[in-house]
Design goal:
Mean pLDDT: 87
Radius of gyration: 21 Å
Number of helices: 2
Order of helices and strands: HH
Low-confidence stretches: none
Number of strands: 0
Distance between the termini: 47 Å
Structural class: mainly alpha
Shape: rod-shaped
Length: about 70
């Protein structure tokens, strides 16, 4: 939730300062379009992280079962 608030603040307020410093500008992209792209990117990244954590948890569970079965 805090990331979303920070991204919205950056898009609607921070980009003004970055454009003044000639670092970047949104030429053909509106702020709302940039917000939607940023939200989609965040969903993809969080989805990937969720899947990766599930795979790691499954892997660690299998490893623990092997260690316990070898210890007996």
């Amino acid at each position: 939730m805090s990331n979303t608030i920070l991204h919205i603040l950056f898009i609607f307020h921070g980009i003004k300062y970055i454009q003044r410093l000639n670092i970047l500008s949104l030429v053909k992209l509106t702020k709302v379009q940039y917000l939607l792209i940023d939200a989609a990117r965040a969903l993809i990244l969080y989805g990937f992280q969720y899947i990766q954590e599930k795979i790691q948890a499954c892997f660690h569970s299998i490893q623990r079962k092997r260690v316990h079965s070898n210890a007996k």
